[in-house]
From TrEMBL:
Source domain of life: Bacteria
GO CC list: membrane; oxidoreductase complex
PANTHER family in the cross-refs: PROTEIN YDEP, RESPIRATORY NITRATE REDUCTASE
Gene Ontology molecular function terms on file: 4 iron, 4 sulfur cluster binding; formate dehydrogenase (NAD+) activity; molybdenum ion binding; molybdopterin cofactor binding
Entry coiled-coil feature ranges: none
Keyword 4Fe-4S: yes
Domain Molybdopterin dinucleotide-binding: 641-748
Names of required cofactors: Mo-bis(molybdopterin guanine dinucleotide); [4Fe-4S] cluster
Taxonomic lineage: Bacteria, Pseudomonadati, Pseudomonadota, Alphaproteobacteria, Sphingomonadales
Gene Ontology terms: biological process: cellular respiration
Identification of the protein by name: CbbBc protein
Every Molybdopterin oxidoreductase domain range: 111-485
Keyword annotations from UniProtKB, A to Z: 4Fe-4S, Iron, Iron-sulfur, Metal-binding, Molybdenum, Oxidoreductase
Length: 755
């Protein structure tokens, strides 16, 4: 982008449709990969092809020839781009100069091509051989006084094979310091659900969408972040299934959607109304909505109706009475005040839930990223228990995960709080004693960098410094490190905010072919609904000097642990050997992995609640109590606004594809604030004025972001929204859910200050 020409206008068409088709063509053109990209698109999410690198939503069977979406196409086009970051590029720019560039500019430079090492004398990255790179990593790791002085980050694109070996290498090295992107994302699901239903994953599979009688979509923007989910919402809607969308933003695709794959709808400019009930919730008001719905249910039971699944509750659950008593003690005035909804609407939502014999509740970051996010997720589990919505067709809880393999990475060991039984199996299978004490999650790893106890940071994918809270403070923390390593496909800010030594190690991407001395290899991915499938890249690697994530892990292990008896070298060539080890460590779910993965559509990992089996300490599903109506600490300041940091339609997390956000009517600008008009007028702000935001906190630190343009937008009073990662400087590091460690990125208390 050369010149900024911001435009804001209402978007009143359906989402999807020709706009999505045009955007797909445009991004292929921009990245100059029309032929290669179109060919690759045909192999995406097809048996024998590769898994879309974008979101974690599962694929349907092969009925649809093009099982991809506009945003999957963007992710692929940016991966298959013809642009390259070469040694000449690094010779031309100092790191200080690159720091001046935008995230968008860095992304647009293209794919990394060879390993680079930071040279302090010139402030430039210079070429470095792979051997030297691993030697440097080995030297730094072996020099540590304590293995807990290293932090091993994982982002969720890393496939199972690499993540599994990484978890073994790091544990043999001696630490459980596994900060990962899940810590900022669905950790409230991973930590909140096990005490409730015995597993930290969803219980729904795609087929359930065909049998469900009601769908709730809470705090999630599927039209942008899980577009393949739209097909299932459209089909359910066409069957007359009520869909309740709960969101402070009337996200376009939740209101009206045209399926780009529906030929008739495309030809006739038709569309489907998605939400039969749009619930315009206050930020953090979901708890009051859920409790209000439960109150309606209990009230009606009390006067003689049979709504609860009594048999299920008696056989399978514990703790319903205490939840009922707490909910019944709440007043309607408080429920409406906290949710920002009318009592009548809460009653309508309850009615939809009551009438449905099989309900699915989907949720995303709007639910997890609050200070009590884990407990909020448990309330979703509670309401589903009331009507036995587990272990029957068409029903269940459905966290919609983010990164394409974030769920898989956790399953195969990326976990800073591993269970003792898992560690026992690692010991038995690999013959070393793994560390038993818990390691650092994301926030704790930054604290360790700040106080100087962390010395080495290895980033397996991702863009850590841009994803984490408190940007300015996190930059200072990262710069104290002795060594930072970025294992990546693209140049990002994480490579520029670096330690005294620093490496950029470029990898083969998801869509690219993996050839080893043992022939072509494939990797595996676990999607949001626990299906494990093979992924085989189809295009040539962006450069001959890229390595696979598997090889990088093995060679780091060989460099750091020269005496290790684990056959790292053999894993580099034969991924089947890795899968055999996964099967040994996880016999309950991964037995016969190498056989089962031969199925074209892969296989499903066992989810015990689908069989009404509860792997909790008491063997029951537990109703869990969260008293009151707050999911964030109240702030005693009348000027306070709650800020939700969200994704635009043209970004993948910290990767900015363009400055547009079509469905919200924003063009060429990301420094904007979506605000209710009355809130704007009450503050004496002109429409489209530039303002600054300041975080309200009592830790004495000033957090401020300037030059934000205010846009009138149908937000509830008191709620504002803006874009992640630009607004991360406002998110305090210690503003997070204590159960999961997840930063409360959807409810930052802020005030508007004069520019
Ligand atoms: N194209 C694309 N796809 C992606 C991603 C991407 O960046 N781009 N990111 C991937 C990742 S890692 C993830 S985790 C997912 C994220 O996918 P989503 O969960 O959809 O993520 P967000 O855009 O952060 O926010 C979701 C919604 O929460 C709403 N919200 C904010 N506060 C509240 C609240 O208090 N209550 C309720 N009910 N809603 C609220 C916002 O208005 C927004 O619509 O998507 C994945 N897929
Ligand atoms: N304020 C605020 N902060 C948030 C959020 C929010 O909603 N609000 N969301 C949080 C969430 S849900 C998440 S998941 C995190 C995301 O945090 P991360 O996962 O750390 O960030 P990404 O932007 O997804 O990482 C992008 C980088 O990954 C690298 N990459 C891409 N593909 C591959 C690959 O195949 N292999 C390897 N090795 N590298 C690859 C590229 O170099 C690219 O620059 O951010 C969190 N931060
Ligand atoms: Mo995420």
């Amino acid at each position: 982008m050369t010149e900024k020409n911001p435009r804001y206008k209402n978007y009143d068409h359906p989402a999807g449709g020709w706009g999505a088709a045009a955007a797909t063509a445009k991004v292929l053109l921009e990245q100059s990969v029309v032929t290669k990209g179109s060919r690759a698109l045909l192999a995406m999410n097809q048996p024998g092809g590769f898994k879309c690198p974008s979101c974690a939503f599962p694929d349907a069977d092969c009925k649809k020839t093009l099982e991809f979406c506009e945003n999957g196409a963007k992710a692929l086009a940016h991966e298959a781009t013809k642009f390259r970051v070469t040694r000449d590029f690094f010779a031309q720019h100092t790191v200080a100069e690159l720091m001046e560039k935008s995230d968008y500019w860095l992304e647009m430079q293209g794919r990394l091509t060879e390993p680079m090492r930071y040279d302090a004398a010139t402030d430039k990255y210079v070429p470095c051989s792979w051997d030297d790179a691993f030697a440097l990593i080995g030297r730094h790791l072996r020099a540590l006084d304590n293995p807990n002085e290293a932090e091993f980050y994982t982002s969720g694109r890393t496939p199972n094979e690499a993540a599994f070996l990484y978890s073994i290498f790091v544990r043999q090295f001696g630490t459980n310091n596994f900060p990962d992107c899940s810590n900022m994302c669905h950790e409230p699901t991973s930590r909140g659900l096990p005490p409730a239903i015995g597993i930290g994953k969803g219980t729904v599979v795609l087929e359930d969408f065909e049998h469900t009688e009601a769908i709730f979509v809470i705090g999630q923007n599927p039209g942008t972040n899980a577009p393949r989910m739209m097909t299932h919402l459209v089909e359910a809607r066409k069957r007359g299934v009520p869909i309740v969308a709960v969101n402070p933003m009337p996200e376009r695709a939740l209101i009206r959607f045209t399926e780009p794959q529906d030929v008739v709808q495309m030809a006739t400019f038709g569309s489907t109304v998605i939400a039969s009930e749009f619930v315009h919730i206050k930020i953090g008001g979901d708890l009051a909505l859920l409790k209000g719905m439960m109150k309606v249910i209990f009230e009606r039971e009390a006067v003689g109706e049979t709504i609860l699944d009594h048999e299920f509750i008696a056989t399978h659950t514990v703790g319903m009475e205490q939840v009922r008593d707490e909910v019944m003690s709440l007043q309607w005035a408080d429920l409406t005040e906290h949710s920002g909804l009318e009592e009548a609407q809460i009653r309508r939502c309850a009615e939809i839930y009551i009438r449905s014999r099989a309900t699915i509740i989907c949720y995303g970051m709007g639910l997890t990223q609050h200070q009590l996010g884990s407990q909020l997720v448990q309330q979703v589990a509670n309401i589903l228990l009331l009507k036995g919505n587990y272990g029957k067709p068409g029903a269940g809880i459905s966290p919609i995960r983010g990164h394409s393999n974030v769920q898989g990475d956790r399953t195969v060991g990326i976990d800073e709080k591993p269970s003792q039984s898992y560690l026992d199996r690692v010991r038995d299978v690999f013959g070393f004693e793994p560390p038993r004490e818990h390691g650092h999650h994301t926030v704790e790893s930054v604290e360790a960098m700040e106080n100087g106890t962390a010395k080495v940071f290895i980033g397996m994918g991702g863009n850590f410094v841009r994803a984490i809270p408190d940007t300015d403070r996190s930059y200072v923390a990262m710069r104290k490190l002795e060594l930072t390593v970025g294992i990546a496909t693209k140049l990002n800010r994480g490579h520029l905010v670096h330690g005294k030594d620093a490496l950029i190690l470029p990898v083969i991407a998801r869509s690219e072919r993996i050839e080893t001395s043992a022939g072509e290899q494939f990797v595996t991915i676990e999607d949001s609904m626990s299906n494990v499938t093979a992924s085989r890249g189809v295009i040539e690697p962006a450069s001959a000097d890229l390595r696979t994530e598997v090889e990088i892990v093995c060679r780091m292990a060989m460099a750091a642990l020269p005496d290790s008896k684990i056959p790292w070298e053999s894993y580099i060539h034969k991924y089947g050997l890795i899968r055999d080890k996964i099967a040994e460590v996880y016999p309950e779910i991964y037995a016969d992995f190498s056989e089962k993965i031969k199925e074209p559509m892969g296989f499903h990992l066992d989810i015990p609640p689908r069989r009404r089996v509860w792997c909790t300490p008491n063997g029951k599903a537990n109703f869990l109590l969260l008293p009151g109506l707050e999911v964030n600490s109240p702030v005693d300041d009348p000027t306070m606004l709650r800020l939700a940091t969200v994704r635009s339609h043209d970004q993948f997390n910290t990767t900015i594809y363009s400055y547009n956000d079509r469905y919200r009517g924003v063009y060429n600008d990301r420094m904007i604030l979506f605000m209710n008009k009355e809130d704007r007028i009450a503050r004496g702000i002109e429409e489209r004025a530039h303002v600054s935001l300041e975080t309200i906190s009592n830790d004495g630190l000033k957090r401020r972001v300037d030059a934000l343009t205010v846009i009138d937008y149908p937000m509830p009073r008191g709620a504002i929204a803006g874009y992640y990662p630009e607004l991360n400087p406002l998110l305090p590091l210690d503003y997070y859910d204590r159960v999961s460690g997840t930063p409360a990125a959807k409810s930052i208390p802020v005030r508007v200050v004069a520019p």
